[in-house]
Amino acid sequence: MATLTLNNVVKNFGDTQVIKGVDLEVKDQEFVVFVGPSGCGKSTLLRMIAGLESTSSGDLLIDGQRINELGPAERGLAMVFQSYALYPHMTVEDNMGFSLKLAGVSKEERRSKVLEAARILQLEPLLERKPKALSGGQRQRVAIGRAIVRNPSIFLFDEPLSNLDAALRVQMRIELARLHEELKATMIYVTHDQIEAMTMADKIVVLQGGVVEQVGSPMELYHHPRNRFVAGFIGSPKMNFLPAVAEGVGAAGVEVRLPGGGNVCVPANGEGIARDAAMELGIRPEHLELDEQGALSGRISVIERLGGQTSLYVETEGQLVTLMVDGDVAHRVGDDIRFGFAASRAHLFDADGLALESLERHPLASLTRQDNRAESKA
Amino acid sequence: MNTTTTAKTAVAPAHVSIGDVARAQRWRKVGMALLGWAVALLIFFPIFWMIITGFKTETDAVADPTLIFSPTLESYAAVQGRADYLKFALNSVAVSFGSTLLALLIAIPSAYAMAFLPTKRTKGTLLWMLSTKMLPSVGVLVPIYLIFRDVGLLDTRTGLIIVYTLMNLPIVVWMLYTFFKDLPKDILEAGRMDGAGTLQEVWYLLLPLTLPGIASTGLLSVILSWNEAFWSLNLTTSNAAPLTAYIASFSSPEGLFWAKLSAASTMAIAPILIFGWLTQKQMVRGLTFGAVK
User: Do strands A253-257 and A319-326 pair parallel, antiparallel, or not at all (unpaired)?
Assistant: First the structure.
């Protein structure tokens, strides 16, 4: 059992505030991912939880107990560093057993615990090696093994996969998800890679400039981003943003005029939106489709063919719009096309960049990874 | 020095063949090698001359310089007959290793604090420490002499150890600081997560990982202390006098007994020369540690 609670947590470095009052609840056995652009404070927040950085104000609680004043080791957490941070002068076995050695655990017990972790991570043949003689992926596994051996209440991961090549990253991603299931531990994972966040998280925390922009399940963030930043950050390729003008608000939603003259009625709560208010319409590239009767038109300026899918970059009213369409589309650069979208797929943002609440919740918005598993078992 | 120049490759004009370029490069290499040897020999020559003079008779020593003479150990015998070499040598060993050990004991925690818990004033402190090396020692001779006289440290090994420790401390702290700074912070943080207190962190992680640097710092400190003459001549007379005082005792009262003086000097520098030669690899490794990773 390990829950983590952050109450209005603040971090100042000199005169600059890098974490500006974060509230967060991490449930037992949850896989929580902190994601955000570099400099958003996600690593600092993790290091504060770890105890490697002091907390300027606010409370950190594990299972309701305040841990602000405890040292890193006393918090009962384990951390996997981006650089792996293995002890270069020790063998894999000594690396993994170091915490137990410091804790005064007997040699035999140490060995059995290390062997157990090595078995989970398939590290048994490497126990006598030094880190220098390991590949990047193996080092990563040793770093995880070192964390497992401590049997921590919460695992902390600081961008653990960013030093690995693409193929290995995918493999380790799957392995980490499997590990989470096997260990049934609470895990907090920091990354700037939104694919890692989407695929691994039960809950994603999107940070920007030391502020939590949104907390939610991956599907929640994808379908119901709270603001323009989250909408643009989650999803790849990035969501398109088009200037729009409110034409009217009704029970069916908000009617907006698009660049180029087309009108769309987006099913969103338009309370407080005045007529002629400047807004932004957000639509994901994968939700745009080629359509002779579509509300938008433009000229193709770049085509990227990925095989299964094709990205079209279309010049529309002085703006580049991205479309993700079928791989076999026959268009060429320079073609004039018309395209459109289902109004229910669109998002509306007010002048402050806040999203208008959707009138209808997406059926999968509350789905978590655990639900995925439950369904697959059924 | 002569190896680095070969890496430069000139872009040859069209009418110059590759053979010509290769030949020019070869000559350049030979030239640099010769220059390197010449400089090395020039630097070594006084030491070489001193060593062979020690094996001459006093008459040969002052005669026209020559390499042809009948070697003799009579100067060594005379030198040993007049002063107990071993006593001075033991003082040198005790004082240089003692002061080095003490300096490391003080400097390791200081350098740790400066490297891993720096404050706004750390850089300034480091510079200030180094700046004390620029003060001429003779400027503090009288106060230190008087203090030592009053507390009874004159002509004691303890006194010399204290002075040498203070003398070398800035360099030792500075060197250790640079070695410690090169250590990835993550490794120490990982140790902290694993439950290491500061002492365990230093003992299990910092010291083993920076051992080459610590060793070369220690070696340098030993050599500097061994060669130090100003303080040893001024603060010791007989009991704690190290080998530098031993050499000096042959120079002043006896006038120009070159052979004996050379024999004494050779014996005085021999231990540190051999020590330096044996630890050469370690020294170079330590001094370039971090620069080439």
Answer: unpaired
Q: What is the CA radius of gyration of chain B?
A: 25
Measured distance CA(A17)–CA(B171) in Å, rounded: 38
Each residue's pLDDT tens digit, A64-95: 999 999 999 899 999 999 999 999 999 999 99
DSSP class of A144? H
Helical ranges in chain B per DSSP H: 18-54, 58-62, 74-82, 85-116, 122-131, 141-151, 157-182, 185-193, 198-200, 207-209, 211-227, 230-235, 243-251, 258-278, 280-287
Give the Cα separation of B257 and B279 in Å (integer).
33
Nearest to A35 by CA among A145, A198, A184, A249: A198
Q: What DSSP letter does each residue of A180-210 carry, written as one string?
A: HHHHT-EEEEEES-HHHHHHH-SEEEEEETT
Q: Do B189 and A85 touch (CB under 8 A)?
A: yes
Nearest Cα neighbor of A368 from A202, A195, A200 is A202
Beta-sheet strand order (sheet of A309-316): A288-290, A336-341, A296-305, A309-316, A319-326
- Is the preceding omega at residue A237 within 30 degrees of 0, hence cis? yes
Query: Rounded to 5, what percent of chain A is helix, strand, coil?
Result: 30, 35, 35
ipTM of the complex: 0.84
Q: Report how far residue A72's alpha carbon sits from residue B200's, in angstroms, rounded to the nearest whole number.
A: 14
- Structure-token match 């652009």, residue found: A37
Beta-carbon contacts of A333 under 8 Å, excluding residues fewer than 6 positions away, are A300, A301, A302, A303
Query: Around B225, how many Cα atoms within 13 Å sit in the side-chain half-sphere?
Result: 34
B24: contact with A, CB 8 A cutoff = no
> Residue type for A61, please?
L
Chain B interface includes A73 (CB < 8 A): yes
Which one of A52, A88, A102 has the shortest CB-CB distance to B209? Answer: A88
Among residues A364, A22, A351, which one has the least CA distance to residue A213?
A22
Distance CA A196, CA A209 (A): 21
CB A150 to CB B194 under 8 A?
Answer: yes
CA distance B262 to B247: 9
Element (H, E) at A261: none
Provide the shortest C-alpha distance from residue B179 to chain A (in Å): 16
Burial class from Cβ neighbours inside 10 Å (0-12, 13-18, 19+) for residue B239 reads exposed
**Cross-chain CB nearest to B187 (options A82, A87, A103):** A87
- pLDDT tens digits for range B230-289: 999 899 888 888 988 888 887 755 567 788 888 888 988 888 888 888 888 777 776 665
